[in-house]
Design goal:
Helix content is 28%, strand content 26%. By secondary structure, it is α/β, with parallel strands linked by helices.
């Protein structure tokens, strides 16, 4: 039986490749994918800058053609002889690449799988993996009730971070982005104030909103490393900046004037080695994903207003070309495989 998957190379250049559907053995689980969800930041890094930007090593002959992606929803199609926790037909969230089938192998870093609640659609379920990233950042920030928060970058991770900060009791919630359309969606996500990032006085506006203090915690959820200095200027004394967006590149900051004299803290977020609980940090990636799915099921976390494109996988080339151009005509992008 033949399956299909998307093969990416910089450009973007996307091909649809056929492959043989694998047969699961042992504790492996074969999933028939219905939706694959686009991680715009990391996947656009690949199509713009190549394998190294995505953490991959080019092939021996220098080719940079890979199946990428890590957020999929679908149904269990077959199970290995050792599988007891999942049944054929069950709806599941997995870490698969963009393709019609994904073999979940627990021995690999992308070999995670959890059930999807009945009232959470496949269209949004995959973004619970983004929610895992956002929730880890919010947990590391250790937010308190009525702690002022600013989120720079209203992409999917930023929108989820904003909502999770709201659920943590933060106030006010300030959303910052270059696109007014995304700021409108941020208001739907719970922002109390919005600022267009093109304003040169954005740090001062944040200070005005927070009665001169600056934001207690600022989340950097963009791909723009160079804006870090502006975040330092907008942060309250002894405040915290959380780098959730995995921005590539170099940032220049005024070390003494902001970071040192005002005793600011900068926290990097990447979830390295977070697959197993630690005595001092019990919040694994799976636990975060389960929390996000529960919040989606309860209606406390909302993604429906953030999905702008649900398109057949055959439209992947045109879709990535649109995304690579930038602009505000897209946000949450999903490929259909059923």
């Amino acid at each position: 039986m033949q399956a299909q998957r998307l093969i990416f190379s910089p450009g973007p250049h996307i091909e649809i490749e056929s492959f043989e559907v694998p047969t699961p053995s042992g504790d492996q689980i074969l999933v028939r994918v219905t939706r694959s969800h686009v991680s715009a930041g990391s996947e656009l890094n690949f199509v713009r800058h190549g394998a190294a930007a995505y953490g991959l090593t080019p092939h021996v002959d220098g080719r940079e053609q890979f199946a990428i992606g890590y957020m999929t929803a679908g149904r269990v199609a077959a199970i290995g002889e050792s599988v007891a926790d999942f049944a054929i037909g069950e709806r599941v969230l997995t870490g698969g690449t963009h393709g019609s089938h994904w073999l979940v192998d627990p021995s690999t870093p992308s070999g995670h799988i959890i059930g999807i609640p009945d009232n959470v659609s496949d269209d949004i379920a995959g973004f619970a993996i983004f929610g895992d990233v956002a929730l880890h950042g919010v947990r590391r920030a250790a937010l308190q009730i009525d702690e002022s928060v600013a989120v720079f970058g209203m992409g999917m991770v930023g929108q989820l971070t904003l909502q999770l900060a709201r659920l943590s009791g933060a106030y006010p919630l300030i959303a910052v982005d270059l696109f007014d359309s995304r700021l409108v969606k941020a208001t739907q996500s719970g922002a109390t104030h919005t600022i267009n990032a093109s304003r040169e006085d954005a740090p001062q506006v944040i200070r005005d909103i927070t009665h001169g203090a600056g934001a207690d915690t600022i989340f950097h959820c963009t791909q723009a490393a160079h804006i870090l200095q502006s975040l330092l200027e907008a942060c309250a004394a002894r405040g915290t900046i959380v780098l959730t967006g995995s921005a590539p590149g170099v940032a220049q900051i005024r070390l003494q004037e902001e970071l040192l004299r005002r005793e600011l803290s900068i926290i990097g977020i990447y979830e390295s080695q977070m697959n197993e609980p630690h005595p001092y940090w019990q919040w694994t990636r799976e636990r975060n994903r389960r929390a996000c799915l529960r919040l989606l099921s309860a209606g406390e976390l909302r993604l429906d207003h953030l999905i702008t494109h649900i398109v057949p996988h055959t439209d992947a080339q045109a879709t990535f070309e649109m995304m690579a151009r930038g602009g505000d005509d897209w946000l949450g992008v999903v490929f259909k495989w059923d």
